[in-house]
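User: Please predict the structure of the protein below. I'd like the answer in structure-token form so I can feed it into my own downstream comparison script.

Assistant: Understood. Taking the following sequence of 152 residues as input:
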Amino acid sequence: MQSEVCSREEKQIALRKALESHTFARSEQLKGFLRYICEAETLRPGAPLTEYVIGVEVLGRPEGYSPAEDSSVRTRAWELRQKLERLYTRELPDEEVQMTVPKGTYSPQYIHRSAVPLEQLATISLPREVRVRQDVKARGRSNTVWLMVAAV
């Protein structure tokens, strides 16, 4: 995927808009999570953010806690991804710089919408209202599954 490098100022503006949004208004813990990972990325670009460090520094888990036994960081990361998707599909769909936190990592990515080719736009973050029409043959009878992809 093509992307332009975002300036520090663009990243800070994207973070501020997310934190001040209606989508994040009642999610203090997720705002803290987002703020922490964005500031860590800005201060230490490329340094890995670990589940353990986020658990201790953001979620207040005790030193020595086991991420294998406590899924709170993974759960909050999933919730954060959902909030960001909702933010950019509902509240700020025309925002030029959008943040994502790719699955499998805790590092934010910033995407310039204008830098993404139109044909790839739908593959970045598909809205939940996705339906596909496909004829499926199962045991001699045809089932139809509907899917309608909303254009971004």
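That's the full token string. The radius of gyration is 18 Å.
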